[in-house]
Amino acid sequence: MDRRDFFKKSMTVGAAVGLTFLANNKSTNSIFSQDKSIGMPDLVAIKGGEAAAMFDKGIDAIGGIGRFVKKGQTVVVKPNIGWNRTPEYGATTNPLLIKRIIEHCYNAGAKKVYVFDNTCNEWSSCYKISGIENAVKEANGQIVPGNSESYYQEVIVPGGIILKRTKVHELILNSDVFINVPVLKHHGGTSLTIAMKNLMGVVWDRNFYHSNGLNQCIAEFCLYKKPDLNIVDAYTVMKQNGPRARSMDDVSIIKNQLISTDIVAIDAAASKVYGIDPEHVGNIKIAYNKKIGNMNLDELKIRKISL
Questions:
Q1: In terms of Cα–Cα distance, which of 191, 261, 245, 295 is closest to 82?
Q2: For the whole model, what pTM was predicted?
Q3: Residue 43 and residue 304: Cα distance in Å, rounded?
Q4: What pLDDT does residue 59 have?
């Protein structure tokens, strides 16, 4: 299947897997509670349009990037760059979204914007093939490796039952603002990869998570550090064979994006977009029970935007 056929097929695949509710406003309202955004919303849900335009509208609705980034501050942006896949596979974060986030940060007066991931495939190929390295450079950001233990420092996880300590990339420790930008996709071990799981890319020893309770460790890391802002890329969504995808038949273009300061709320909302009850995603329920965030969407002020 060539790329033109992929984009034609994607909407058919989406319908087949139960994503038809994303095609119109009426069905979208059945996922999220009615718009109660009097004042600042807890979560913004944007659909339609292109990634950069969705972010422009969404970040404005949640107070603008200046709410999070001040003049002279350093920012670290953490996408999913874990796999040496091109963007249409949905295995990594949309590079156009990353570029636009960096541009907004500089417009707010950021001193420096860094981007990195502790990748699964060889790091330099992931950075290049995903398109993220080029996007970062075009926006005058700084792409930083995460492939050496020397970049990581040990921290204590307060309240951790299993994950009591871990080594965290120095950018997370030293930057003023932390922006988390996962891609929504299928994962064999946790059902979904979203915002909390994306934080596995800021630690050195991922094998500990896999060997000692993956969902528990994912949730417990948030006891140590939660991002200042989370942006879920659900433009191209991998519906099966995650986290890497076997072919473009595994993905569907649905053109959605979510923005929130609450990492549990955004994961709960993203799971709904995907078509899974957040009660059935282990790390979401664990994090909610630990009071890391709120998974009850009907208790949130949600602003919905259609482009």
A1: 245
A2: 0.90
A3: 9
A4: 98
